[in-house]
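Ticket opened by: R.M.
Priority: normal
Category: complex prediction / small molecule

The reporter submitted a protein together with magnesium ion and asked that the result be attached to this ticket for the collaborator who will pick it up next week. Submitted input follows.
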Amino acid sequence: MLSGTDSPRSVEHTQLASLMEAAGDVVFRLSSEGEILYASKRTIEMMDPGRSLAETRLTSLVPPADRLAIELALKQAIESQQPSRVNVRMNTHNAILWFELQATAYVNASGAVELLAVGRDISGQHATEERLRHMATHDVLTGLPNRSLLSDRLGMAVAQARRTGKGFSVVALDLDGFKKVNDALGHPVGDTLLRIAGERLQDILRDVDTLARVGGDEFVAILPGAVEESEIQIVARRMIATMQLPFEIQGHALYVSTSIGAATYPQHGESEVKLLAHADSAMYRAKETGKARCVIYNDQKFTAPEHDVSLEAAMFDAVRNGEFLLHYQPIVDARTRQIMGFEALMRWMRPELGMVPPIQFIPMAENNGLISLLGAWALKAACVQVRRFEEAAGRELYVSVNVSPRQFRNDQFLDVMDDALTLSGLRGHQLSLEITEGILMSDPEHAEALLTAISARDVRIAIDDFGTGYSSLAYLKRFPIATLKIDRAFIKDLPESVKDGAICNVVLSLARHLQLSTIAEGVENERQLEYLATQGCGLIQGFHTGRPLLPEAAMKLLKERAAPPLSIEPHLTKSIR
Ligand code: C2E
Ligand code: MG
Ligand code: MG
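Result attached by the on-call engineer:
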């Protein structure tokens, strides 16, 4: 054994040897070349009780990946004449452990430079750090990478693809029917299903692929090298097949399926944000067109005919540059004309190019997936702003925010809404969400669950552009709706148009019987206002009572109209044609 073969040649070495037995977990005396001259008994027991360490280099006890680090540390200790420290793994006889090794150079009795390397076993601490790192980057439920690690990996995939010229694909999956399982059988069963789903997906992917869980029942996979449509479809078919097998949980055989969307670098996007958004769009398309299928993103199919490619490209930069803002249009009491609240309307102000109307960019944002981000921002910003209006006005106001179909389907919607309320301090009943009839009809089960959760927080639901969508009235009974916004199309020819008058009256009467409040949209003149007020429409919104305004202008208007006008009764008593 080494301790026996190397009898200390001087008093210094004898003293050193006994000191070494008492020091750290592993202790080596090394030549300046890193050869082991002496190892403490404890070290030998730990490393390999049956083997001599004589003439072994310290680096041979270390896994190849850590060898350079050790060599550098020894070199530095000799050159700087200061202790040098390094964390490395060492192959002990029954495990690979982490050591913090401190090397100190000295001159021995014969004048030669030697090194003393003392190591402390830090495997426990290292394991804790690793666990913490793992927790921050992985989903607790499935153990898969989370959104943050996915984002790192996507960044790396983009960098690597740029370097090597080899593309990759991003695949977004969402389980169909998961919500039903969760609602019917509870979260523990839902959680188990998600865990098994994660395992099944992981099983069919290669080692080089990354699978992440990015929220709720949504997963994303990065597939390096898979760029052909046929390759992606093969993987997708396997994913769909494995998800269609029954999930046996707590005696139930549960069935779900999965809708998949894919986008490929560089054809469908060269940035992480674009690829994710496009894969997501394609996934929604898969859901809308029958579920349990894979749709690959396609620029032509996914964009409106009037689509302007450069506008879309600019939109991604605009989000980063903060070019979006909100205007606030007053909603007034039809009788007193007092401002009761505001509708927040989004604007895109392009530097030097001017304003892009929402009619143009909202559908685009719906398509490319940016709407979730923009919508979440609008919701929070509007709540915070209206709280400021309220403070300035010294009375309660409410805010109405448009919610797009895509946003409404997003799993994080409730969290975003809760954040907006908490952040602003507004109370639930002061927020109204404007949705269209189409949202309710496309996935009534999801809509019912979400609307119930929303109204449990006292937040009100308004049907925007009422009368222009589906003509089914059944949903007014089924869903907790608070407000109908009568579309401008029925207002603009009032009071002359007999037909529009009849439609408005029917809507107002329906609302009265169902105890819903009503807002007339697009009121442009006094005659329209008078007519609507007399027919019992509670609230008015339109250029006549206030255009959409920047926050400062809206604030000014609020102050000017602080006191309600003295006499409004004459308007209301006029006879109506
Ligand atoms: P909307 O929710 O029905 O909003 C009312 C639209 O009517 C606004 O158009 C408003 O400026 C306009 N308007 C108001 N009063 C009058 C009037 O007296 N006469 C006329 N001719 N028009 C009037 P805008 O701001 O161009 O918005 C268009 C649509 O874009 C909105 O229709 C809404 O569907 C969508 N939108 C706007 N902001 C957002 C948003 O933050 N999120 C989502 N998802 N959609 C939004
Ligand atoms: Mg609206
Ligand atoms: Mg509207």
